[in-house]
Design goal:
27 helices, elongated, two-stranded antiparallel ribbon
Length: about 425
């Protein structure tokens, strides 16, 4: 969605062919009259007249959601945004657009998105989100469903993310978005290499909003949002990103499983390196310290094998003492536990961590060591796809990944000097 439309462009009343839209029956006479009357007056004067304010808000919503004319839609969503940011109670201004206003602005956002109009998409979505946030009784479902669709499409996330960050301030919106797999969608967007600091902030802010939900820790673990947030902190971005990412993790860390994932993702090391970082906001420094204490406490309680399992679960595998011959001589049998759960996750890493060459190399090494140290596991390794996943990496562009993948396949296939065909 590439658009160079500016706010000044959108506010060109004369750029809209109102007479044509009225002739075609697209815009009702009373709506055109209300909009034209407001254009000739001041917003303060219009909002000071209760009847005029309601008529104006109704007209803006109806035209924004009902027309296919880009200029008219841009004008109306921009003017609606002006109404919502004007002086006065947010709830009272939101009520000016009821009933029907929310649905119209969701429709406007959808039409604008399909037309490739990034400006109108962003503003219409922002207006709809503001209406949801200001009215506890608003039906957030349609907006949340549309936002979820946009966040699933990485190319549309930039326009939807600001609205989502506003909408999720409402409890109903949080519950609805979480129910639609919203945590996983946000984790995926946070892992995107592109997008810039502002998008990272909006996505992390939305995860922070969701971190207050009762089921948040489970959702954060299941969707790998814990690892995504740990990665955002490790990237050492702007302070505002660190603030919301750390506080979201702090909320999730009330659950031991989530805190264990943080240990596995190497968050303790990241936070220790941030101890001397100067923060403009003392609250950020305090949150970093509190989270570091929690992660350190959980880490101390874990055995070496538990720390390894936590790292594997995180998918962020890094070379260290648990990826060595000495470790696997002692722990190879642990690969059988929970129906080869460690093996299953390592195979997933080989498929998922396409851009993380160190994780690919480490996972290949570990799978090879399991095959080498525990001959009885070779059949399971083949059945669970370890051999096939490693084979696909033999031509990887990274030489270390190539080497580790080839060694992994060799260790799986070789048994007592001969090749084990098909894992038999």
């Amino acid at each position: 969605m590439a658009s160079m439309t500016t706010r000044d462009d959108a506010l060109q009343f004369g750029a809209v062919d109102w007479q044509r839209l009225i002739r075609e029956g697209v815009v009702a006479d009373q709506h055109a009259a209300a909009i034209k009357g407001a254009e000739a007056s001041s917003l303060e004067a219009v909002l000071g007249d209760a009847a005029a304010a309601r008529a104006y808000a109704a007209a803006l919503a109806a035209v924004a959601g009902g027309v296919d004319d880009g200029a008219a839609r841009r004008y109306c969503v921009t003017k609606a945004e002006d109404v919502l940011v004007a002086d006065g109670a947010a709830a009272a201004k939101a009520q000016l657009f009821a009933p029907g206003g929310l649905a119209n602005f969701v429709a406007a956002a959808g039409k604008a998105a399909r037309a490739g109009d990034a400006y109108s998409t962003r503003v219409a979505a922002a207006v709809a989100a503001a209406l949801v946030a200001a009215d506890a009784q608003a039906d957030a479902g349609p907006l949340v469903a549309w936002l979820a669709t946009q966040m699933a499409d990485g190319t549309s996330a930039r326009e939807a993310a600001p609205a989502l960050a506003v909408a999720l301030r409402a409890p109903r919106a949080r519950a609805a978005f979480a129910a639609q797999g919203g945590v996983a969608l946000l984790a995926a967007r946070l892992n995107d290499a592109g997008g810039g600091a502002q998008l990272k902030y909006e996505v992390a802010f939305s995860l922070w909003c969701l971190s207050f939900e009762e089921d948040a820790p489970d959702d954060f673990v299941r969707s790998h949002a814990v690892e995504a947030l740990c990665g955002a902190v490790a990237a050492a971005p702007r302070e505002k990103v660190v603030r919301v990412a750390v506080t979201a993790l702090l909320n999730a860390a009330r659950d031991d499983a989530a805190a264990t994932r943080m240990v596995g993702a190497g968050l303790g090391t990241t936070l220790a390196s941030m101890a001397s970082r100067p923060f403009a906001d003392d609250d950020v420094k305090a949150a970093v310290g509190e989270l570091a204490t929690r992660v350190k406490s959980v880490s101390k309680e874990l055995s070496t094998l538990e720390r390894y399992a936590a790292e594997v679960a995180s998918g962020k595998l890094r070379w260290g003492p648990v990826h060595s011959e000495a470790f696997w001589v002692e722990h190879a049998k642990a690969a059988e536990k929970d129906d080869f759960a460690l093996v299953r996750r390592l195979v997933e890493v080989l498929s998922e961590a396409t851009g993380d060459v160190e994780a690919l190399a480490v996972a290949s090494y570990d799978l090879g060591e399991i095959a080498h140290r525990h001959a009885g596991a070779k059949s399971a390794l083949v059945k669970l796809g370890a051999k096939d996943a490693a084979l696909k990496l033999i031509d990887h562009e990274d030489e270390d990944v190539q080497r580790r993948a080839l060694q992994c396949v060799s260790k799986i296939l070789l048994r007592g000097g001969s090749v084990a065909v098909g894992g038999a």
